[in-house]
């Protein structure tokens, strides 16, 4: 009766004739389709009451998009020519929520097989990522089969019939290609993770995040996650959209770093910050939206990401950032493929055999192109670094040339000033000789003139000495010196001054102390220090010269202590500045260059010079630090 009905009813598609020479047969166009909008119909109702409502399919790949309806499919097989051979019905789209096959049992009833990616993997008749059903080819004549499909995601079907040989070849080729795909992604993930650990450049970390999202998404889309990782927890498959958020957020951070938006294009950097905020809000909202609305939201965010980053890459490239060219090429192709994949899931575009593999093709394309792009980025940054180094070298040479010119101008100026000052000094000297036999009442006037002459001569010679020390290119020669004997010789030279002012001066420098210094310049520094101590000490005051050795640090400190007027903290900060004078310049004998000269000489001997004072009226100490001989 069933055979006769199938043969004469115009409502049924022609039975699929199985032949021994065929390895694979597409059966999409041999199916009839019935939509159950309320998802309440039973198999008996579909076979009898609503049998006339079936419509013939016109495609081998069936695409119903996102729908709440239940889809019923029916087809018939005629296995008379392959009696006893093994044939299999294979649904290659592995992310259908619920798929139920009603196969004839040969007794007028049906066997029921319930599978789907929301059902435990162990319920499947065969351990395969796709939905594989073993067909009973021993039944005679055309046999009717029914498929019931339900899901909160996109309902796409790619049904095929394979004999044993065809199924093995299909599985082998697919496993090999997908193995290469996942192997490539995992290798690139580990490689970029190691690059991040080695280089500490976060662009590699963001790329690792992107690859992680791609792998997780594809494990869900391919069915490998349910097959190998969480076979008893199919609910995880409902959260495949997590991969799209991981990819989008990693892509945003990767783009900010790779395109150097913060440094080169701050306006676009702010745009991506707002995009990340939008992405975060969408991510949080997805946890509260039930499927399929969470799927719709993630799909819309994917489409928005496509438009945003395609536009961003082209814009940055057009504005002259050459390193963005491979970025544009990588993401343009990848995002275009994802765009087509998303539209295929939405049912806007036809769902073909190649559609499920578009994310794989795009991911491999991105891996290859971004690997090249990272290399190109390194070359670009290296070229930019060399260019900056050349510019810096050029600017440095120009700066040094300017400094040399300033030094020449300074020397010329000093020579001119010294010449111009020497002329009135000579006039003063001549006037002094002419007026030396004058009236005694002019003695004070001529004394003042002589003092002014000496001061002019002093400032000229001291200034020239200071600038000569500052400008010399080579450090003075150093040798072993004994500071105690140098101080002793200086004290003998100052004996008259010390005696006239009734000062007490103690030389407590160790006679065994030997330091490395240029002896004439060390003598000059010590002379400056002693002159300052004597000048600012009150009559009957005390001056003490001490030494202290730090063997571990291999240096010695010589201190010249007086109990004179001391210095304030503000004065201590400026005391070594050229032309700084403590007190009123009009009432001081110095020129404000002696301590500045002393510090220059000490530093050129690898020594140090500094001053300490408890405060005004509490004494002053000048310290000299030199390496031990």
Keywords:
629 residues; alpha+beta; Immunoglobulin-like; Rhopdopsin 7-helix transmembrane proteins; Heat Shock Protein 90; 3 domains; seven-stranded mixed beta sheet; 20 strands; rod-shaped
What would you say this structure looks like, in words?
The chain has 629 residues and is of the alpha+beta class. The chain folds into three domains: 147 residues, Immunoglobulin-like (Sandwich), CATH 2.60.40.2380; 217 residues, Up-down Bundle (Rhopdopsin 7-helix transmembrane proteins), CATH 1.20.1070; 153 residues, 2-Layer Sandwich (Heat Shock Protein 90), CATH 3.30.565. The strands form five sheets. Strands 1, 3, 4, 6, 8, 9 and 11 form a seven-stranded mixed β-sheet that branches. Helix 9 packs antiparallel against helix 10, helix 13 crosses helix 15 and helix 15 runs antiparallel to helix 17. The N and C termini lie far apart (119 Å). It catalyses: ATP + protein L-histidine = ADP + protein N-phospho-L-histidine. It is an enzyme of class 2 (transferase). Its EC number is 2.7.13.3.
């Amino acid at each position: 009766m069933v055979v006769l009905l199938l043969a004469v009813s115009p409502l049924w598609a022609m039975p699929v004739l199985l032949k021994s020479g065929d390895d694979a047969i597409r059966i999409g166009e041999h199916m009839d389709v019935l939509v159950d909008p309320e998802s309440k119909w039973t198999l008996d109702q579909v076979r009898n009451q609503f049998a006339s409502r079936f419509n013939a399919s016109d495609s081998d790949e069936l695409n119903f998009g996102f729908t709440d309806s239940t889809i019923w499919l029916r087809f018939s097989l005629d296995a008379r020519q392959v009696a006893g051979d093994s044939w299999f019905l294979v649904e290659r789209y592995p992310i259908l929520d619920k798929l139920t096959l009603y196969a004839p049992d040969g007794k007028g009833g049906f066997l029921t097989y319930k599978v789907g990616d929301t059902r435990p993997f162990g319920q499947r008749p065969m351990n395969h990522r796709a939905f594989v059903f073993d067909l009973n080819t021993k039944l005679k004549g055309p046999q009717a089969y029914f498929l019931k499909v339900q899901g909160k995601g996109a309902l796409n079907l790619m049904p095929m019939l394979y004999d044993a040989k065809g199924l093995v070849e299909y599985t082998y080729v697919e496993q090999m290609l997908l193995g290469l795909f996942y192997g490539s992604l995992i290798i690139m993930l580990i490689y970029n993770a190691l690059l991040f650990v080695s280089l500490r450049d976060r662009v590699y970390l963001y790329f690792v995040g992107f690859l992680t999202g791609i792998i997780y998404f594809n494990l869900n889309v391919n069915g490998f996650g349910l097959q190998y990782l969480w076979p008893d927890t199919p609910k995880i498959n409902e959260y495949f959209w997590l991969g799209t958020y991981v990819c989008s957020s990693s892509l945003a951070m990767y783009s900010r770093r790779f395109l150097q938006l913060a440094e080169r294009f701050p306006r676009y950097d702010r745009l991506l910050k707002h995009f990340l905020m939008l992405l975060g809000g969408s991510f949080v909202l997805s946890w509260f939206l039930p499927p399929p609305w969470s799927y719709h939201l993630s799909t819309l965010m994917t489409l928005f990401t496509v438009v945003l980053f395609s536009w961003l890459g082209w814009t940055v490239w057009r504005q002259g950032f050459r390193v963005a060219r491979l970025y544009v090429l990588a993401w343009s192709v990848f995002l275009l493929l994802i765009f087509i994949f998303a539209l295929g899931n939405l049912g806007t575009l036809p769902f073909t055999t190649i559609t499920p593999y578009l994310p794989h093709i795009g991911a491999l394309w991105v891996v290859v192109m971004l690997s090249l792009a990272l290399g190109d980025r390194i070359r670009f940054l290296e070229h930019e670094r060399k260019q900056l180094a050349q510019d810096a070298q050029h600017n440095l040479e120009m700066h040094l040339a300017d400094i040399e010119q300033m030094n020449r101008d300074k020397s010329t100026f000093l020579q001119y000033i010294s010449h111009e000052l020497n002329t009135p000094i000579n006039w003063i000297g001549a006037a002094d000789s002419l007026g030396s036999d004058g009236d005694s009442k002019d003695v004070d006037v001529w004394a003042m003139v002589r003092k002014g002459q000496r001061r002019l001569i002093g400032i000229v010679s001291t200034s020239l000495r200071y600038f000569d020390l500052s400008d010399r290119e080579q450090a003075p020669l150093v040798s072993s010196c004994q500071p105690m004997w140098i101080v002793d010789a200086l004290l003998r030279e100052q004996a008259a001054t010390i005696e006239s002012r009734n000062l007490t001066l103690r030389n407590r420098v160790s006679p065994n102390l030997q330091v490395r210094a240029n002896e004439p310049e060390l003598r000059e520094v010590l002379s400056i220090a002693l002159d300052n101590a004597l000048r600012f000490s009150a009559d009957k005051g005390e001056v003490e010269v001490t030494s202290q050795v730090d063997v571990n640090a291999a240096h010695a400190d010589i201190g010249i202590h007086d109990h004179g007027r001391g210095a304030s903290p503000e004065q201590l900060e400026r005391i070594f500045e050229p032309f700084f004078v403590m007190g009123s310049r009009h009432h001081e004998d110095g020129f404000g260059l002696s301590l500045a000269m002393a510090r220059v000489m000490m530093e050129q001997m690898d020594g140090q010079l500094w001053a300490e004072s408890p405060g005004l009226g509490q004494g002053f100490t000048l310290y000299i630090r030199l390496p031990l001989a």
